[in-house]
Amino acid sequence: MTEVVTASGLVKRWGATPALAGAELHVGRGITGLLGANGAGKTTLIGMLLGLHRPDAGTLRVLGLDPTTAGSEVRERVGYAPEHDALPGDMRAHDLVRHLAEVHGLPHREAVSRASDALWHVGLGEERFRPVGTMSTGQRQRVKLASAFVHDPALLLLDEPTNGLDPVQRDEMLALVRRIGTEFGIDVVVSSHLLEEVERVCDAVVILADGVVAAAGTLDALRSGEDVVVVEVVGDPAPLVAALRAGGSPLEVDGSRVTVPLPDDPAGIAGAYDLLRDAAVSTATSLRRLQRRTASLEEVFLAAGAGPQHGDDLARDDEVVSRS
Amino acid sequence: MSDARILDRGYRRYDGARLGARGAIGSLTRQSALRALGLRRTFWAKVFPLLSAIIAYLPATVFVGIAALFPDELLDPDAVIPGYGEYYSFITAAIVVFVALVGPEVLCPDRRDGMLGLYLASPLTRDTYLLAKALAVVPVLAIVTVGPPLLLLVGRTFADAGPESFGDFLTVLVRILVSGLAISAAYTAISLAAASLTDRRAVASAGVILLLLVTSVATTVLVELGGSERLLLLNLFLLPFELVQRVYGELGSEPQLATVELVAANAAWTLGAGFLVRERYRRLQVTR
């Protein structure tokens, strides 16, 4: 199975407010970021993936099953870590993780050993018998993560997994998520409003805006919309520009900066670099900078039309760090 | 001592059997029952359940002691020791305190902590979640509704002051189980209904006690003022215990109420409270 989640024409309304308005969705293997401003429909979509909400229209498949009719079967094979702090403070971490493994159908003995393993994996091996209430925010987030994958799900849904974490804890959490999606072989959907976070851990992105999928695909594919080489020259760029134009390269000039678009195919990209090198040598142009630039996720997000009216709700990491 | 250290435990996939909703209900039932009893929790969480149990079992222990220590020639056990149905009048307070504690303890924290969202993201549905909670509360309440009369029966039997034949013994045993479970079922539904209306345990516990007291006082006053005696069917303090008297073939304190009315009223309260809990959870928004 190459597609973990598929949705077609997905509609969900809360009263008169549309949460999803005909979303088309294809989530493949690996780690996928679910990106959108607050109110874009991310949490509603996660609830629907878990079979907790019935769509008003459209079809939805999770791991090949319809969560509205086979909700229990889907939830048995899916792990979920909600955004909010959802742990009872007076329970020991190991008891809690073991209990949630059992609730997901694991026999008691297996649940006991896997709870220990899961807590080791998230770095809480030594702390596993401490009550959750005595743990730091970062440790509680790790317990929540361990609870979500202790039963070896095929798909893990993480809703804002770095909420409330300091920068160091956030880096560790993102590394853990990456490890789960790669080493453990569990497909992960990370819902987030932090662009840089998604950019760092995800292989693919689904961007939700106003209840529809504004853009979706692998990060490489989404960012290939703008794939250019930016060349900054010392002195007059005219000879270099002329040589490049003579070589048939389309380009833009802005003062001492020359921007050369790159083709899609690897051979074409190599050819463009060769042309640049030869043009610089033949015109004896000194280069101050030569840098390949792809579109950032933020640019993709804005280009997808998910941006301006929701811009305040979305943040890059540095902004969030400075706020916290 | 070895210097060996485990550097990487690796990740184990799980290909074994999964127990589905059945396993989930079993685990949640066990976990909720342990929580209600304060087990695997702090000392203070154990205090009230323990005190209630002591109060419930103390009279039975004393009566068994009397039956064992004093020979029949000196003391007629039937004259001194209350009947199994009457025994509940000694432990009503303990039962009410237990009821007021257990339901809220089992339901409220899940909503307050957000654990409900994690449970509903498992094979559990809202209905199976509530089923597991009810399955946890009934046996916990049975500790004070079935256990003490059962201790009385077993103790009296060993002291040679119990039922005269094995048949009589079985009859009393069945009556104890039916009575205890009837009280547990009715009060489970009522305490869960109160707990479904608030996230705060203390408020829900106070609500249960208030509900029992208010229905008791209000109906008694209304009947004394000349209202219909059927108003007593709204008395939650009285109903389950009056039904117990009928199970033992006695008329109890309100003989004017027909047994069928008592059965119907208990069933109506139990089902009505159960319906309220179900509706409340059906409308509860977990993720949005």
UniProtKB/TrEMBL annotation, chain B:
Q: Which Pfam families match?
A: ABC2_membrane_2 (PF12679)
List, in alphabetical order, the Gene Ontology terms for molecular function in this entry.
ABC-type transporter activity
Superkingdom of this entry's organism? Answer: Bacteria
Recite the UniProt keywords alphabetically: Membrane, Transmembrane, Transmembrane helix
Q: Which residues cross the membrane?
A: 47-70, 90-108, 129-152, 172-195, 202-223, 257-277
| GO terms under cellular component | plasma membrane
Question: Which named protein is this?
Answer: Uncharacterized protein
Q: What is the organism of origin for this protein?
A: uncultured Acidimicrobiales bacterium
